[in-house]
Write a structure and sequence with these properties.
Elements lengths: L13 H4 L8 E5 L2 E3 L8 E2 L13 E2 L3 E4 L7 H13 L7 H10 L11 E4 L3 E2 L1 E7 L14 E10 L4 E8 L27 E3 L2 E5 L8 H17 L4 H10 L5 E3 L21 E8 L40 E7 L8 E4 L1
């Protein structure tokens, strides 16, 4: 039986200790991706999209060039590589498997050739997420829409995939595109999401410490010293890692600012402030010593050996970061922005 994981309660009700945080509380929906076989009618990561047959599939028109040191791979080869790793877990590779893996990724020869791969013409985009409002309470769709679809180009633009968002009414899709086009290549393995079903769970979050006043930050730091000592953690990071916002794939809530400082993000069309819509994550677990955000029951290993932490989607942003998608508060269909943190 598939039991919905539950995020453990926070070890401390931080808003009770610091009432200044209470008005800043936001709900977020953790998506909890799990390996599965989603259909058009399911909320999913990397699954098939309920895409109208008469509507053109999105393509990226920008240039696509990669270096010869880390050549791009076809989606078919990446899926085959994953199946081989999964099937051989706990045993030695067969000669046939080794031969196939060497064909997909030939051994590097030296000196390394710096030739580049250039892909001419539009590149078909890949499904990243399909989210039905019925499953994800923190989605705020435009009027008359109940489905969000996220796609991306599987190449860096310039340091992460470029995304597209589509809001639609599921009931209006009567003829579904059953075989969408695929790109000829994917720049990095982590840009090809593994199909996952979702087990959404709504939680409460608080802002990253960088979004708080200096006075409150200092109070939190001093208060965190004994709390962090009990967990053998750095008091400077205890609040962010354990009490503020959850790691992993989620909708809504607060963004994490691990590699950049917060900055105001006005809409390019109307100037209205933007707010986080969704987080595309490399890892589902956090950085705290006990992985206190890990859901129970713990879901176990990823789709194939080699991932650090739990990563059913196979997605990797940079060297282990998050991609935050921000949308206009006044009009969700205005152009969105992407930030890596």
């Amino acid at each position: 039986m598939n039991v919905t994981p539950v995020t453990p309660p926070r070890p401390i009700d931080v808003a009770a200790v610091f009432p200044q945080l209470a008005p800043l509380a936001r709900t977020a929906t953790r998506l909890h991706p799990r390996p599965g076989a989603p259909t058009w009618h399911d909320s999913s990561i990397g699954g098939p999209l309920l895409w109208p047959a008469e509507e053109p599939w999105p393509h990226c028109e920008e240039p696509h060039v990669v270096d010869g040191i880390n050549p791009a791979q076809s989606p078919a080869d990446l899926r085959l590589e994953r199946r081989i790793f999964a099937a051989s877990h706990g045993r030695d590779l067969t000669p046939e498997e080794r031969e196939t893996l060497e064909r997909i990724r030939p051994p590097r020869t030296y000196p390394v050739r710096l030739a580049v791969q250039a892909y001419d013409g539009p590149i078909a985009m890949l499904p990243v997420a399909q989210l039905y409002v019925r499953d994800v309470p923190d989605l705020s769709p435009p009027e008359g829409k109940d489905l969000l679809q996220v796609l991306w180009c599987p190449f860096d633009h310039p340091i992460m995939p470029r995304t597209l968002l589509f809001w639609r009414s599921a009931a209006a899709v009567t003829d579904v595109l059953d075989t969408p086009p695929e790109p000829p290549a994917v720049q990095f393995d982590g840009y090809l999401p593994e199909p996952c079903v979702l087990e959404p769970e709504q939680i409460t979050e608080y802002p990253d410490h960088l979004e708080l006043s200096e006075e409150l930050r200092e109070q939190l730091k001093q208060w965190s010293v004994p709390q962090a000592a009990e967990e053998d953690m750095d008091p400077d990071t205890y609040y962010d890692c354990v009490l503020s916002n959850a790691p992993g794939w989620k909708v809504g809530g607060w963004p994490a600012w691990n590699s950049t400082d917060p900055s105001s993000q006005p809409c390019s069309e109307c100037g209205t402030g933007m707010e986080i819509l969704m987080t595309v994550a490399t890892f589902e677990e956090g950085d705290d010593a006990g992985n206190s955000w890990s859901p129970h029951p713990h879901p176990g290993a990823g789709p194939y050996p080699g991932h650090r932490g739990y990563n059913a989607t196979g997605v990797q942003i940079g060297s282990g970061y998050r991609q935050h998608l921000f949308v206009c508060l006044a009009e969700p269909e205005h152009p969105h922005i992407e930030l890596m943190t």
